[in-house]
Structure formats: C-alpha cells, structure tokens
Design a protein that fits this description.
The complex is a heterodimer of chains A (110) and B (114).
Chain A: E1 4-6, E2 11-14, E3 19-25, E4 32-38, E5 45-51, E6 54-58, E7 61-66, E8 71-76, E9 85-92, E10 98-100, E11 104-109
Parallel strand pairs in A: 2-11
Antiparallel strand pairs in A: 1-3, 3-8, 4-5, 4-9, 6-7, 7-8, 9-10, 9-11
Chain B: E1 5-7, E2 10-13, E3 19-24, E4 31-37, E5 44-50, E6 53-57, E7 65-68, E8 75-79, E9 88-95, E10 104-105, E11 109-113
Parallel strand pairs in B: 2-11
Antiparallel strand pairs in B: 1-3, 3-8, 4-5, 4-9, 5-6, 7-8, 9-10, 9-11
The chains are: A mainly beta (110), B mainly beta (114).
Amino acid sequence: QKEVEQDPGPLSVPEGAIVSLNCTYSNSAFQYFMWYRQYSRKGPELLMYTYSSGNKEDGRFTAQVDKSSKYISLFIRDSQPSDSATYLCATLNRDDKIIFGKGTRLHILP
Amino acid sequence: DTGVSQDPRHKITKRGQNVTFRCDPISEHNRLYWYRQTLGQGPEFLTYFQNEAQLEKSRLLSDRFSAERPKGSFSTLEIQRTEQGDSAMYLCASSRPANTGELFFGEGSRLTVL
C-alpha cells in the first residue's frame, strides 16, 4: 500500500462551486499533512499545512484531517478559474521524508 | 528574489551524456531536498541534505545519480550516462531546521533525454 493515495482526476467544476479534494494515508502515526498547489510547468507551492487532526481555514480554503479514517481533505469555496491547477496532498512519514500523492488535476470552468 | 532558484530551467541532452543541475536554497534553510516528477505523477523523493550532510538517498536512485551540497549552501545533482527514462522535472526544495513538511520549491529543471 502506498503511503499516500490520491485520485488523479481530472476534476472539472463550474466557477463558484465548492470543490472537495481528498487523499488517504496508510499510517496512523503520521502527524503532519500538507496540501500543495502546482500550476503547469511550475514547482509546487505550499497551500495549507495541518498538524494532527481537525480543520484549518485560510480564506476560501479549508484543510481537514480525519485521523480515525486516515483521510485528508481540501475544500475550496467560491472556486475561481485561477484555482485551476494540480493539487498535491503530502505527509511527513516515519523516515522524516515528505511523501506526495499523485496529485489531482482541477479545472474550474468559467 | 529570496526563493529557491534552480538552473538550468530546461536541459535537452542526448542519451549517454552527463548533466548537472544546480539548486540555491533559501539562505536560512538548512535542509535541501531533491525530487523527481514525471507527467501525471506527484514528486518522488530522491535525496535530502541537512547542511552539508546527505542524510538519505532513495533506493530508486541508481549509482548514475549523485548529489552534493558543499559547505551546506547550494546543491548540485549530477546524472551520468543519461537514459531516456531520466527525462523528468527535477525539483529542489528547502525547509527550515524543524522538519514539519513545509517545503519551499524551486521552479524545477526539466530534463529531456533524446
């Protein structure tokens, strides 16, 4: 089993919709969870960062961690065409390495 | 610009040639990572440094790959005898001393092996 699993999409939603992006992880000991956004032909940039469980909100973005189900989510409210990108979930594993999911390609349709 | 910088941004080479990529991290960051990313995949860990010490190297990294970080500042990633399967984006990232997963990535160096 991979340490982080993510549906690659693509996911297309109309502008203004709420977007839900999800990942699962394998080890209940993982504590640090991240969401990165990557535009085409660019390096990833850190979007949201959470420690342990619960929610974290930043503007239109909410990151959620459910440790009981080993599930992490990113919600985007009032989605904009500029949100079109690949979203990568990541976690810090026991070997002190940051491991990424495959990424979900998101298209916001004007 | 105080972000992570990588050079060159794009390298086209013929199979069998050697290539070297350079990464300049954010100055106060002591950790430096190299990742490889192919189309449709997430970044794949290659190796990382804490200061000048290379702490881990992925089993995926063949002995044709070598990375250095002299004096704990910039880093180089060299690929010897390139193969077509080496074509990918090579990403460098740096982080603060406390490893919490907050990586700051450069724009990447895209390698095309013909």
